[in-house]
Structure of FLZ-type domain-containing protein:
Amino acid sequence: MSAYYYSGCPENYEAHYLDSCSVCAKSLHNSDIFMYRGNTPFCSKECRQEQMEVDEAREKKLRSGRSLRKSESKSSTPGKTVRTGVVTVS
């Protein structure tokens, strides 16, 4: 059985975001709720940890993509001639 909250209209009952686990969709009615990032509910530490690992991998992938693009933009200078070498001044 899923918990509902009353929004003010008798015909307008909506499921609450704390009704089920965000990973496995298990009902959270009358059970402990493990929260992550403020408003994401989980039925267990294991489900919460699974989501944390997914988020960490996603963030790591985004960071590596950004650093790759930065290094590419530093090394490429379209339309400009870049000379490299050693200059000795005496």
Remarks:
- The CA atoms of residues 7 and 13 lie 6 Å apart.
- The radius of gyration is 26 Å.
- The longest strand covers residues 4-6.
- The chain has one helix and four strands.
